[in-house]
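Per reviewer request, we include the raw input and output of the structure prediction for the construct analysed in the revised manuscript.
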Amino acid sequence: MSRLWPEAVQGGLFPGNCWLAGGKGKRDLLASVATGNHAPELLQGLEQCLIQTEANRKGWASLSLVVSDSIAAIAPLAWQDGLNSQAELHGYARICFEKFGYDIGADWVLHVEYPRYGVAGLAYAMSRDWLASLVTTMEARRMRLTRVLPISAMVFGGGPEIARAGLTAVLLFEATQHCVLLFENGALVVRDVEPFSQSIEKTCHRLLARTLANRKVDGENPLNLLWWAYKEIEFPKDVIETHAANVKVTQVAQGAWP
């Protein structure tokens, strides 16, 4: 553990693993705790990480968090020309959430993001009570929350890898579910989730079978695949090759987000 507390601190809250890291690029791990699968247990994991590092901090510090998709409601949004105000955007997002079985009312904090004109967007919402508990937990350990985003929203914010031409898939391996976000020429075209069952290979197989069922991936239409995992795992390479013949695979470091 570093003796000097870094100015920029990032954290991850995921079923099975919570961590704090500092620095830029290759980040230094400051603390890591195994956790349970439910939202309150993630807060307990964060508190343990903060307790572990408290002696190294002088005064207050800031923390940016990426959290499990499992504690958020997330919905892709088709482009809509006629939506201008925040009220209109939120109203449309709530309709989209209803298709996924979510009733997003005043007890949720809702955000809608369209990256640019004419392309699909993403809406995400988190429990207002859980967020209040998060802030309380942090402030009790002299930490200020800079931002908190579900990992799908963090990926959607993207970077050079997401914006490139052609097809880019981002696989997110969590303990309780796997998720894929498929981008075409930088625009989100698919987001799908598969609950974890039996093994990483079988869960990933079901997810990719749906995602790539109607898409041609070959030498003329290659797939750029990025993958991220909440902890160290063995990547299911054979499963990928079953669904796509020409794939460039790149691992994204655990602490790459936020």
